[in-house]
Structure formats: structure tokens, C-alpha cells
Amino acid sequence: MDKFARIQQLADQRGLFFPSAEIHSPPSGFWDFGHLGATLRRKIADVWRKEVVRKIDSIEIDGCIILPKNNFEASGHLKSFVDPLIQCKKCHKIFRADKLLEKKTGEEIPEAMEISKFDKLIEKHKVNCPECKGKFAKVKKFNMMIGVSIGPLSGDYNAYLRPETCQNIFTAFQKIYKTARVTLPLPISQVGKSFRNEISPRQGLIRTREFSQLETEVFFNPKKINECPEFDSIKKTKLRLRLLGKKETISITAEEAVKKKIVSGKLVAYYIVITQKFFETCGFDPKDFRFRELDDDAKAFYSKETWDFEFKTSIGWLELVACNYRTNYDLSSHSKVSGADLSVVEDEEKFIPHVFEISMGLDRIFYSILENSFDERDGKPILSFPRNLTPMDIVILPLVRKDGVNDKAREIHKTLKTKYETKYDEKQSIGKRYVIYDQLGVPLAITVDYDSLEKDDVTLRDRDSMKQIRVEIKDLEKTIDDFFDGKKMF
Ligand SMILES: [Zn+2]
Fold it and tell me: 164 CA distance to ligand 1 centroid (A)?
């Protein structure tokens, strides 16, 4: 079984994540997260808040998921948010033309390519239905927006589930700018759900219909793209870039990238560095990631410059973040459709701010962290999360569930849970419990036994070395603090 399947299996066995509403045979592409999955996601978002939102003085908002139709006329989604769909004339099954072509040719096919080009390529490479070998009808555009009708009288869709969280940020920009006592550059962030009616959701959390994003939109004056006071502090940081048309990834300082005009300016370089540092804090090894420069065919139509942050997984390079220089496309088009003035006046100049976007996919980051933490011991899977992301810090295990041993264990749990993510578990044998919590990546186990009743001490077990030490209960909290501070004690 490959790594992807092993992780999927572990997740299902231990309830990290599983198909949503599974008992009702739901459509694919929807996932629920169990207790450890939910905690891990919260922790990722917390690290993001600390390493991105707070570090760049961003303002976090919390916007609605359902947005009015006009919003998407302005954003261009109703017209352009389409996938190339192809249907077999014989068995009537539906596929994505770009994915079929990629499989056949081994080359990357941009999903935004013109429809007529798809038909030509399908014919040229003699692509037939993978199910029945039947011939295909012509490629069609399929809009991926999920429509909703709001109010009792509306028949047609008058609103849609947002396909990206950034839309709220664009519509809220003027309000935030006017009320938050700020000047440009102004980063605004949001974490939340987005929805895309994918033709064929697949690969677990990799391509889903409901997903979560961690997004930041930086509004700035394009004339000041090289005015970035924080740049000096990061200019020596090496960026891992895969430039257009190149096979190799190069390591180049932010300063050089600006000087050689590889990026549009200091401001762009700064936010790319921030993105890279976030992933390093999440335990990603720089040799396993890169920022890939996208060409005109592959990048979104509104983007002047796009860097996809990709991570090397067992299923190939995975896009975790899109960094887009969106120019003033968003504010201009929202302004045009709504009639609202979205310009600002700074230094006696009136202009519509430009936007640099850092759009992260939480579900893919979640999967990548699982893969990064995954290992095997004696043929059994174990997860070893970076300390700042452990969904559960400590498990408290009474040797038996009687004679006061369990009561003592519960007492310890009660004290520790105010500070750490802890769990009390008295089910099954102690050996089985160790195996389960090793799999779940819990770094520390506390065992309470009969000796504990007499001597007022417990056994502390380190997941990684499997070594154990005996600690008096009065020193327990201090010892645990030291362990999580990184002190070596096993
Ligand atoms: Zn077919």
C-alpha cells in the first residue's frame, strides 16, 4: 500500500477525517474532521495567525459564505470560473479534458486554455473514454459555482457559495480602510470555507467540493512596490524558486530576486519570504518545497505574476499556496459593477490600490503535514508532528480502572488539561493504548499504577524513544513544561 493510501487508512481508523454524512451515501468531495483532525486544523490556523497575520500586521475578518450574484458578475466568476468538461458519447460518463490530456501526454495542460484548443489536442492524441474506449463529444465549459436561492420568492439563483474567501476581503476593503485607522500597504486576512462544484473530486483531501482557505490580500500603492520597511530584515533569506521554463529549482536571496527583477518588487519578495517561513515553522524541509513561476496560460486571467508554493509529496508536487499579483483588477471590477468608489487618497494622490494575494489551501496543508509526520515502526504507522502542531500533547493512562488508580489518573488529567491538550483513556490494555497514541502522534504518555498510590509518582513515556522515567507528582508539571520547551530528559 502506498503512503497516500496508508494515511487515508489511518485517518479513517482513528477518525482524523472521514466522508461527511457517510451514512447517507453523499456525493464525493465532502469531508468531516474528527477530534484530532479538527484540533490539528485549528493549530495550523493558529500558527498561521502567529507567523503570517500578526507578523505582517494584518487585519483578520470573518465574512459570509453566501454572497450575492452581483459579487460574482463583478469578480468574473459567472463567466470565467469554468472547467473544460468532456462527455463520452457511448457510456455518457463525464471527465475533465485537461486531466485526461495530462494523463495521456504526461505534460501539464492549463485548465484555462481555450476550448477549441482542447478539441484539437483530444483529436491529435487520440484520447478515448478511459471507461469504455468510446469517442468523446466536443469539450464544454462547466461553471464550478454552487448557486443558492435566497428568500421565499426567488426561483433562480440570486446568490452563490463563495468559491474563494478573498471575495469578502475585496468587498470589505473600503470599510476596513476607513474604520481601522490604517494606511497602505494594508494586509487583510481571513480563514474560512469555500466551495467549488468540482467535476470529479478525487484523492481524498486534495481536490474537494468544500474546502478551507487561509487567505491574505495585501492592498498597496503600485508606485510604492519597492517601499517595504521590513525588507531589510529578510533580504538575505534564500528563496527556493523554479523559474519559468526551467527544470531546476534555484536558491536565491530575496535581495537578488528583486535586483534581477525575478519578482515585481521588494513588497512581493517580502510576502513570499513570509510564506516560506510559515512552512518552515510547520516543519517543512526547504529541499521539499519550491515557488513555481506560472506562465500566462496557467495563471489566473487577473494575475500579473503568480508563484505557486509547491510541496513534494508521495503523490507528486502539490500546490499548497497561490501567490498572485492581482493588480487592481478586483477593486476596479467591484467598483464598476456596484458603482461604489473603492479608490483611496494617500499623499495627495487618488488611486485604486493593487493587491498581492497569498492564498493557502488548509486541507492540502493539513494533508502535507500528515504525510510529513508519517512514519512506520514495526510495520505500524506512527505520526510524529512538530511540537507546535501536536493535536494532542499528553495522554493519561491508568494501569487499571479500579482501586483508586483511575481516580488518581483523572485527578492528574484535571490539573494538566487547563494547560495542555490532554486526554484520559482507560480502555483496553496498556500496551494497546501505547500503540494507539503513538499512531496518533501524542508525544507524552503518563501512566498511573499501584506504585503511584503509595509513592505519589507516575511514569512518563516519550513517544519517540519509547523510554520511560519515573516522576514525582509534585514535579510533574515542571517536568512536562521542560519537555515541551525542548529539554532532553529521556
Ligand atoms: Zn465511455
Answer: 33
